[in-house]
UniProtKB/TrEMBL annotation:
Entry keyword set: Membrane, Methyltransferase, Transferase, Transmembrane, Transmembrane helix
Membrane-traversing stretches: 44-66
GO BP, sorted A to Z: methylation
Organism, scientific name: Kibdelosporangium aridum
Main location, first listed in the record: membrane
Signal peptide positions on this chain: none
Membrane protein topology class: Multi-pass membrane protein
Record-given protein name: Isoprenylcysteine carboxylmethyltransferase family protein
GO cellular component terms, semicolon-separated: endomembrane system
C-alpha cells in the first residue's frame, strides 16, 4: 500500500511538471490563451480532441501507479512493465495524449503556432523514446519488453487490443 501511495504522489507531481509544462505552460506562453478566428467546427473538434487527450493522459498516469507500482518519471520507474489500458493499443499513449492536447489547443484557439510547437514536441518525444526509454525498458524488462514491443506499435494504435500472454 505504501508503494502505491508514494507512486501516486510521485505521479501527481510528475503530471504537474512534465505535461503541465509541455502542454500547459509553454502553450500559454506562446499564445496567452488568446483566440483567433477559426471555423467553428474546427474549434469543436479541438475541444473533443483536447478532452479525449486529457482523459487518456490521466488514465495512463493512473495505470503507472495501479499496474506498475511506479511513476512515468525516469527517476521513479514502475516495478512492472505497464501493458494494460491504452498501452494495449499503442506503446506511447502518454506522448500521443500530450501531443493531442497541444493540437486540440491549436484548434480551440485558432493559434497555428501551436501546430509548429507540436511538431517540435513530437520530434523531441520520438528522440526520447528511441534513445532513452526503449533501451531502458529493454534493460529493465528484457524479453517481456521485446515481446510487447513486437506486438504493440509505438505511435499508430492497433485496431484491436493486444492480449498479453498468460503467466504460468
Amino acid at each position: 500500500m505504501r508503494n502505491r501511495v508514494v507512486a501516486a504522489a510521485g505521479s501527481a507531481g510528475f503530471f504537474v511538471l512534465a505535461p503541465g509544462i509541455v502542454a500547459g505552460l509553454i502553450p500559454w506562453s506562446l499564445t496567452g490563451w488568446d483566440t483567433e478566428p477559426i471555423w467553428l467546427p474546427l474549434r469543436v473538434i479541438g475541444w473533443v480532441v483536447f478532452v479525449a487527450a486529457v482523459a487518456v493522459l490521466i488514465s495512463a498516469f493512473v495505470r503507472f501507479v495501479a499496474e506498475g507500482s511506479g511513476t512515468p518519471a525516469p527517476v521513479a520507474p514502475p516495478e512492472r512493465l505497464v501493458v494494460g489500458g491504452f498501452y494495449r493499443y499503442v506503446r506511447n499513449p502518454m506522448y500521443l495524449a500530450v501531443l493531442s492536447t497541444i493540437i486540440g489547443q491549436a484548434l480551440i484557439l485558432g493559434q497555428w503556432i501551436l501546430i509548429v510547437y507540436a511538431v517540435l514536441v513530437c520530434a523531441a518525444f520520438y528522440a526520447m523514446v528511441r534513445w532513452h526509454e526503449e533501451p531502458a525498458l529493454r534493460r529493465s524488462f528484457g524479453s517481456q519488453y521485446e515481446a510487447y514491443k513486437a506486438a504493440v506499435p509505438g505511435w499508430l494504435p492497433r485496431i484491436r487490443p493486444w492480449q498479453p500472454p498468460k503467466s504460468a
